[in-house]
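Task: sequence design from structure.
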């Protein structure tokens, strides 16, 4: 075996190892998703409760609270309403309207009042339903603050934003906001019928298992190819002892040789 063949074999082994690790990573993500689905199912089945009983004094919506149903009573502050741009619900582009709900204890909660499908190519909704005046009771599902990496989409600018982020909104609106928000499901008095509701969570295992199988299959292909070339192509192209050359032309007889 020559040096180049050995280097190629090591490269194949490295590739197979990487494929195996990627397959294991997908199985790890599958376990995480199953655990998250179990929490989501439990939260959806739980009875509605006041928000302070669920979040406690920290006031932070975490993974363990996602999709938990809460009931809150307060008054909307329409002067600090935010239009969420570039949103999609069921593959339809549009806007979401987020309005702070002022609670009796001095805190405030961001309420996603609903989705307004985009009618044409407008950059802002043509009509935003007015908030109810006076006290309202909102029933909705808790959601974590949205984060977009290094983008500033969660910081309101001129009454608009791209993400719903409690701490970023609090800095601009000057409110003592919960870290998270509520997607409205019911309101008393009723929510404006112009709003579309939100779909529930996707509770499935996703494609992680099949992705893992693909990576393991690629690893088997790499190992199988290595075994095959070891048997057929690892001799470095040199003739083995005892091999006889084929089709060797014999020298012609010398001219003028004796009869």
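Answer:
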């Amino acid at each position: 075996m020559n040096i180049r063949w050995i280097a190629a074999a090591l490269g194949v082994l490295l590739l197979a190892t990487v494929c195996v690790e990627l397959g294991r990573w997908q199985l790890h993500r599958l376990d995480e998703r199953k655990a998250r689905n179990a929490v989501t199912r439990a939260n959806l089945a739980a009875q509605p409760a006041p928000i302070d009983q669920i979040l406690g004094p920290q006031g932070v919506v975490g993974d363990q609270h996602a999709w938990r149903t809460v009931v809150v009573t307060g008054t909307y502050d329409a002067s600090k309403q935010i239009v969420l741009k570039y949103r999609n619900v069921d593959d339809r582009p549009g806007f979401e309207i987020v309005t702070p709900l002022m609670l009796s204890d001095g805190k405030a909660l961001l309420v996603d009042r609903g989705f307004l499908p985009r009618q044409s190519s407008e950059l802002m909704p043509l009509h935003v339903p007015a908030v109810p005046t006076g006290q309202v009771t909102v029933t909705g599902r808790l959601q974590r603050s949205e984060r977009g990496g290094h983008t500033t989409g969660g910081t309101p600018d001129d009454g608009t934003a791209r993400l719903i982020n409690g701490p970023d909104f609090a800095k601009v609106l000057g409110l003592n906001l919960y870290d998270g928000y509520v997607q409205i499901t019911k309101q008393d008095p009723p929510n404006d019928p112009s709003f579309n509701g939100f779909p529930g969570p996707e509770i499935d295992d996703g494609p992680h298992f099949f992705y893992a199988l693909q990576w393991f299959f690629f690893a088997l292909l790499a190992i199988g190819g290595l075994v095959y070339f070891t048997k057929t192509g690892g001799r470095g192209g040199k003739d083995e002892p005892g091999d006889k050359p084929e089709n060797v032309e014999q020298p012609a007889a010398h001219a003028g040789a004796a009869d």
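The two ends are 52 Å apart (CA to CA).
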